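PROTEIN DESIGN WORKSHEET
SECTION A - STRUCTURE
LENGTH: 281
TOKENS:
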């Protein structure tokens, strides 16, 4: 295999994103499907994947060859390896971290590994953040009557912090969670005068995607925090941010996501205060 051919999922993902603007329409379609549904790509048949993605089976071969693989089966191996790594148990991950600790400076090596991953994530988002998009998101959220916050699973701690901080800033908000299963009713109150912050990363939480889709259909503007232009959240968002988090020992950081969330929340509070002072002047 050519040395330039992606050998792991993260490299493959980065390659697809780098080339997305130049991909032919049908190949871009299967590329988006592949990043949104990597498990299906890993073990589906060419026929079943093509049917789900809405393309011809031959498009899968052309997609693989576009990325430098000799055929779709070779590409599929990268997706299978990703699934194997993702499905490793936490015990296995901890064992790997213990091995790193024994090879290095004890458990300090684990701490240093997580700090390094967090530092990488923060450095990457600092370079990549688009100032105009950030200002647009702040303006959109600052004028909202109520800010709805949607997230599940790994993204939930970020959503919880946003709701907490907005409350402290006396900004009306609604963290969409309900032990009674009333999420649909909660977002049913949202109007175009409100706004949404939706957060999800691959593998995307189905509930977050469906709730975002539903609230978008109500005409509510959405600010999304996700990890790809092919993310299902991006298609619903008025403004969206791509955040690539580094990991250590299979445990992925949320440092960059949290920094972005904190900055958005505080900036929204500042903009609302500025608007309030101008009205009183």
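SECTION B - SEQUENCE
RESIDUE ASSIGNMENT:
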């Amino acid at each position: 295999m050519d040395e330039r051919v992606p050998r792991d999922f993260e490299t493959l993902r980065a390659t697809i994103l780098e080339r997305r603007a130049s991909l032919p329409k049908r190949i871009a379609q299967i590329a988006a499907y592949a990043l949104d549904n990597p498990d299906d790509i890993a073990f589906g048949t060419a026929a079943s994947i093509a049917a789900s993605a809405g393309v011809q089976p031959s498009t899968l071969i052309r997609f693989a060859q576009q990325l430098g693989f000799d055929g779709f089966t070779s590409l599929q191996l990268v997706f299978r390896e990703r699934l194997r790594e993702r499905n490793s148990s936490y015990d296995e991950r901890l064992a790997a971290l213990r091995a790193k600790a024994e090879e290095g400076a004890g458990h300090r090596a684990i701490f240093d590994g997580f700090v390094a991953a967090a530092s990488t994530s923060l450095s990457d988002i600092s370079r990549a953040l688009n100032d105009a998009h950030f200002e647009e998101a702040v303006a959109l959220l600052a004028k909202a009557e109520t800010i709805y916050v949607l997230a599940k699973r790994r993204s939930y701690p970020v959503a919880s912090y946003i709701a907490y901080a907005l409350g402290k800033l006396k900004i009306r908000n609604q963290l969409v969670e309900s032990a009674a299963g009333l999420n649909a009713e909660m977002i049913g109150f949202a109007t175009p005068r409100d706004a949404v912050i939706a957060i999800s990363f691959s593998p995307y939480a189905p509930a977050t995607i469906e709730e975002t889709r539903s609230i978008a259909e109500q005409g509510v503007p959405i600010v999304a925090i996700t990890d790809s232009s092919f993310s299902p959240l991006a298609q619903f968002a008025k403004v969206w941010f791509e955040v690539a988090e580094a990991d250590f020992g299979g445990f992925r950081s949320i440092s960059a996501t949290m920094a972005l969330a904190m900055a958005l929340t505080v900036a929204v509070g500042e903009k609302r205060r500025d608007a309030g002072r101008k009205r009183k002047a």
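SECTION C - NOTES
The longest helix spans residues 255-280.
The chain has a mean pLDDT of 87.
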